[in-house]
Amino acid sequence: LNSKEKLIDAIGDVQVVLINLSELLKLQTKKDVEFIKIDSINSINELAEKICNIGDMIIKNDYNEAQNLISESYKLLNGFSNSKNINSDYALKIAYDEIKDRKGFLTPEGNFVKSTDPRYEEILKKYKK
Fold it and tell me: pTM to 2 decimals?
């Protein structure tokens, strides 16, 4: 993959993570149309920090703050996409097309276990009791 393809892949993957977190937490977070302009590596670090903080808020059962962080992450991600002339909807479609046919299951903790994982049967038994 060239660098633009890698960026498209990464942007799509981050969106998938944010969507899955929203779904798992049953949050009403939507992908915001607006964006925050990203013009430096500090902004990318801010996005990474927000995504990490979502996990902290989930552990603390602070779903309102998790929802806020997810919305802010979308805004930063959209700003990054815009700054690189990448359509974030296109990036999401590419990511979806890559994963839509994967077989496996999602654990209650939010981990997707692929059917190709060598531990798949063992993990499946643990959760299907």
Answer: 0.76
